[in-house]
Specification:
Helices cover 72% and strands 0% of the residues. It is mostly helical.
Length: 204
């Protein structure tokens, strides 16, 4: 009997090869041929699963996002059934920064994706949609915390969400070794302390 190929598994293997190309050699080397070489398959085999660079990049980005969400979920699960919103926001922010191997892959993938989106309308629409959903998830947590009295009622949830996401700007400084991870985490915690002023640092 010929061996049956798990097509989803093969697609994920190819996506992971793309991650390695981006992480080890940079987005400029991100071609279908280079990804096929990294995956140990022929270009024709790769094109059986992905018809274009944009399609492959989109799938790889979605897969990275799913793994990122699972990591956040595991962190929150360890905090109990109803984790404090400060802890939820901290987990989200930490995962968006290149502070460990998994999040570095996602961060570098995101950078490559944004560069592609600047010159491809289809990728732009897909990337924008993903960012809008991610931002909305953060804003929901902030709005609920305001409604629950954990964040002062005079705080604008839209502005506070934007300020929280602005902390992801540490990405470049981290990647280029300008700041240390410990300093970034201190800054994140200081910002969250200010947002949840009066909570006594609850939810750390």
């Amino acid at each position: 009997m010929p061996k049956q190929v798990d097509h989803q598994e093969r697609r994920e293997t190819i996506a992971q090869a793309l991650w390695r190309v981006v992480e080890q050699r940079g987005a400029t080397q991100l071609t279908l041929r280079e990804v096929a070489r990294e995956a140990g398959i022929s270009l024709g085999q790769l094109q059986h699963y992905f018809g274009s660079r944009a399609e492959l990049l989109g799938f790889a980005m979605d897969l990275a996002g799913e793994q990122s969400a699972r990591r956040v979920g595991r962190v929150l699960a360890e905090l109990g059934e109803r984790p404090h919103p400060r802890a939820v926001l901290r987990a989200m922010l930490v995962e968006l920064l290149p502070l460990h191997a998994g999040s570095r892959v996602t961060s570098r993938m995101s950078a490559a994706y944004v560069l592609e989106a600047l010159h491809d309308e289809e990728v732009h629409a897909r990337a924008r949609s993903g960012l809008v959903r991610g931002r909305a998830a953060v804003e929901r947590v902030v709005r609920q915390a305001v409604a629950d009295g954990l964040i002062a009622a005079d705080r604008d949830p839209v502005v506070e969400t934007d300020l929280l996401l602005a902390l992801t700007g540490f990405t470049t400084l981290l990647e280029l070794g300008v700041v240390e991870p410990a300093a970034v985490l201190t800054a994140v915690d200081r910002h969250l302390d200010g947002l949840f002023a009066g909570e006594g640092g609850a939810g750390r």
